[in-house]
């Protein structure tokens, strides 16, 4: 499995004279500054400020309805902030307002894997992955000539099911197919909305190990704090649309966070066998039980 390396490919419009060899990238810097997003009079995001460096994986944490998906869609350029800015700094140093970039250009820069991604049900897995090449489309070069599609499918482990119809796929197979589609875009920034929610434990660990090996800047909305602690460099925690904590995962994922944000009593200790925090919960906190009763 070529996690890091490339495979030989065809010339590409973005790499003139060169080989389009792999879906990996050095990532980019992203910055969200004082972003608000309103629906009518309701503020869904309230002054969110967060950032990530090239190659960093940022966990987006927070309870249901706290604004994780909304923030991802703002970061993806799908939703324009009511106020505030989203900036990306490309490897060459160019600093750009994300919402000022044309859709096709933006799709070469970043890719979003949605929580419940849908597509044309008549498509095969390979055809879904080929959709990721649309922003890079070149006249006279059919999609299937792009070896980046093969590599994206290999990384997401869907090569063996390439001829299967999307309609027949399991939840986990769909999730992996959508990852391959996103990788085929050759993004520098990868946005994942609950990417492991359909995966069994083996595939959760495998999936995030693969994501880590790509070296892309990644923002992943996650509910599993143990996975966040194991695979992410940083965490941004949202509660009711506001950032209530951010920083390195070991500083952010604490018993106080479990209590304050999730209403859960627990301990966060160094893992006894590997170098990362280990989250253990006992139950809901008394205050939460009172709220629920
Ligand atoms: N278009 C919209 N119109 C009205 N309310 C919206 C809209 N989009 C999101 N919301 C509300 O904004 C809040 C945040 O939603 P969002 O989906 O971002 O939360 P989340 O943290 O991703 O939740 P979950 O963990 O349950 O997926 C929710 O209360 C949701 O109902």
Automatic annotation (TrEMBL):
Pfam families: ABC_tran (PF00005). The keyword Oxidoreductase does not apply. The keyword Amino-acid biosynthesis does not apply. SUPFAM superfamilies: P-loop containing nucleoside triphosphate hydrolases. Residues 30-265 form the ABC transporter domain. It comes from the Bacteria. CDD domains: ABC_Iron-Siderophores_B12_Hemin. One of its GO terms (molecular function) is ATP binding. Gene3D superfamilies: P-loop containing nucleotide triphosphate hydrolases. Keywords: ATP-binding, Nucleotide-binding. This is ATP-binding cassette domain-containing protein. It comes from Gordonia hydrophobica. The lineage of its organism: Bacteria, Bacillati, Actinomycetota, Actinomycetes, Mycobacteriales.
